[in-house]
Write a structure and sequence with these properties.
117 residues; alpha+beta; Gyrase A, domain 2; four-stranded antiparallel sheet
Length: 117
Amino acid sequence: MKPKKLVAQKCVPCERRMRPLSGMSILPYLAELPDWKVVNGRKIEREFQFQDFKTALKFINTIAGIAEKEGHHPDMFLHNWNKVTVMLSTHAISGLSKNDFILAAKVSALVPNKRKK
């Protein structure tokens, strides 16, 4: 049975006793998210660029709706009037969980066929 793509999965609550993903365990998830980068081994991030401020802000609000539905909330930063940086980490375990990659896939799906960076 072929595993589901990340974008088709749902975030599940993490428990504090879970260990964060690290090293080689991150690689299969990153394979689906080529535009995302690991930062300090504890979070993933990606920058998106838009034509204008209004579109960038709409993007943030769309992500907020998805994040609320998934129960997993990213840090987002709107800068230079048209750029949005999205940062994901699972605060309960102070590192990366599968949820971070699931939400990253859903965020990336909002801008299909366009490599924004």
